[in-house]
Design goal:
Length: 301
């Protein structure tokens, strides 16, 4: 009864609980939260209870440079929960953050996206984590279906719509028709692999070491899946491995395209397999690819 009463002062939320980032959508307001799925956990002495030191952007800044008693944790792996306690605390923080003007503890109805390949145990963990974070009701929707609906694709028609959802840890390829997922596959290639490929390219070709944050910035600013008309450049700094000191250098978009060829080829291969394996008679009219905030549309005849 108390949860129902508090629910009167809470917004219904749609949550994309990703390996790299968590997004929250409120009807009529759009995306109201987009934060890294990272939590900094403090444990002051052996046997003492864990406490949350920071969540989201603040916690991500601590990755790789925390004191001994604080650990920066990514509680999601491949789109499912890897650390139940930390995921619950993260959701609790984000739900409270989007209800900052509420005078009561929020108790919203929540729709959470889950990978198509998530097991029943993994789905139950997501549901229970959201409930533990304060949700009064939890509904699950498969990620490709949510992406297709959000893109305005005709999911109820007999024609096939393909969705390529590139997340932080995995890429999901799905074919949707008649309100159902008729084919799906998942490959362990995502934004994190793109970052690793850029780091390896810089080490190999420039003899310098850059961090994850720098690689991510390079990816967002000049990364591309295909050659563009304009060659873009970015100035970065990294630790020269021979000298052991920071050095600046310039990268261009053609170099990053080369660096990303291996992970991109893996995604293209998954799409080709989907085209070969999808049920006969599924006439494709739409293909959508999505990677974080970057979206590319393709329409096939």
């Amino acid at each position: 009864m108390l949860k129902k009463f508090r629910g009167m002062f809470s917004n219904d939320l749609s949550i994309d609980l990703g390996t790299a980032n968590t997004l929250i959508y409120v009807k009529g307001q759009g995306i109201v939260l987009n934060e890294p799925s990272v939590v900094a956990i403090r444990q002051d002495r052996a046997g003492s209870p864990k406490s949350v030191a920071a969540v989201g952007h603040d916690a991500k800044q601590m990755l790789g440079r925390t004191p001994g008693n604080i650990a920066a944790i990514r509680p999601m792996k491949d789109g499912v929960i890897a650390d139940f306690f930390v995921t619950e605390k993260m959701l609790q923080h984000f739900i409270k953050q989007v209800h900052s003007n509420s005078f009561m503890r929020p108790s919203p109805r929540v729709l959470v996206c889950v990978p198509v390949g998530a097991t029943q145990v993994e789905r139950r963990a997501i549901r229970e984590s959201a409930q533990g974070a304060g949700a009064r009701e939890v509904f699950l929707i498969e990620e490709p279906m949510a992406a297709a609906i959000g893109a305005g694709l005709p999911v109820s028609e007999a024609t096939g719509s393909m969705v390529v959802d590139i997340g932080g840890g995995t890429t999901e390829v799905a074919v949707i028709s008649l309100n159902g997922v008729v084919y799906s596959s998942s490959v362990r290639i995502g934004g994190d692999r793109f970052d690793e490929a850029i780091i390896n390219y810089v080490r190999r070709n420039y003899g310098s070491l850059i961090g994850e944050a720098t690689a991510e910035r390079i990816k967002h600013e000049i990364g591309s899946a295909y050659p563009g008309d304009e060659v873009r450049e970015i100035e970065v700094r990294g630790r020269n491995l021979a000298e052991g000191v920071p050095r600046g250098f310039t990268l261009n978009s053609n170099e990053i395209l080369e660096a990303l060829q291996e992970p991109l080829t893996g995604i293209v291969s998954a799409v080709m397999v989907a085209l070969e394996q999808c049920p006969a008679g599924t006439g494709f009219r739409h293909l959508r690819a999505r990677h974080g905030a970057h979206r590319w549309w393709r329409t096939a005849a």
